[in-house]
Amino acid sequence: MAKQSKKNNKEIIKRKKYALIIGIIFILIALLINKSTVIRLLLSLLSIGCISTSICYKEKELKHFIPLIVMLLLFSSMILDTIVSYTLKRFPIYSYNIITNKNTKVYNAIGIRVWQCDKNSDKLIVTPFYSKGFTCDPEDMEAIDSNAFLEAIQNDYNEYKNNYIKIRGKISKISGSNIVEMQPYEESELTIDGHVSFFENITLRIILNEDKGLEKYDIYDDITIVGVVKNLETSNNQTVIYMYEGKVVSNIDLNDYEITVITDKQCQNIPIFLYEDEENRIYTYCVNDVMITYDRDNIYDLQSAFASNKINIDTIVNSMKLDKKEKNQELYTSKNYNIIKCDNNYIIGYNKLSLKNNVCSLIEETN
Q1: Type and span of the H or E element at 306
Q2: Alpha-carbon span 102 to 125, nearest angstrom
Q3: How large is the average pLDDT for residues 186-197?
Q4: pLDDT tens-digit readout, 146-173
Q5: Are 263 and 339 within 8 A, CB to CB?
Q6: Could you give the C-alpha distances from 180 to 14, 49, 228, 367, in angstroms and in order?
């Protein structure tokens, strides 16, 4: 009997050992396969089954702990999967939510996000899960026009839900430092300042990932943002689509601009007040309009550009040539316009404006 019992014990140990080895082989194979496939998950679960069998086989005192052991092994398998995926930049076995678009897949695993920026490539970017925002190069995404998007999403919301998209449109509202809204719009013939008529029945509300990116922008400005489409809410015939993890990917080069002055042919020889900041007062002289152009989509009257902090008078003057200086008067010249500075007063005029026009004394009389 003793020999038979000893033989049985050896057989049990042998089976336990085989089950453990098979379980380890299964999990290793699952980790080595660098593809997002259900086979890896099945191999991982089989591994947990084999290792659980190795631990609990013929162990009566562990009978009531089998569910706990299985749960611990499952948790350990997930942690191991996260470590391997993060360290070796591999597809995770356990990804509980997959966000996709036409070119990109995002695997949300335990504690990490794995980005496959090109579905035709196995190159991956792995980031901590708390690191929000689009990680791939937004240049590789095709921008969607906001008008087309807001028209289509009412009928095809499920097509866009949980997708990262790059959207380009005009700002209808800015709230704080990280919320921007877009609405469908109809362009008017007047393009200065980008003014358009917005339709308020549908709104795309974008929550930026960081409290920055909107400093250079104002209402009616063109902007391009990457983010993930989430929920849609409708109330009182008003539809709001929410986009999270927004990141501004457009850029207004505020250092590259052109100022255009439209001459007033019926000049009254009186400086006209234009704008005032904390330190300076700015006037125009014998001109109807002063416009600043950054590109074909961003044209503003100079007063609006001052008000939105896109530019200030010091920046403009510093880019010009100091032509003459007499007492408290300075004449700055350029090809299209001239500026005269008198103390903290600046007068913008056509390119023939000179100190002989005595605009400084005219301002003193006006004040």
Answers
A1: helix 302-307
A2: 17
A3: 65
A4: 998 988 887 778 888 888 889 999 999 9
A5: no
A6: 65, 50, 14, 41
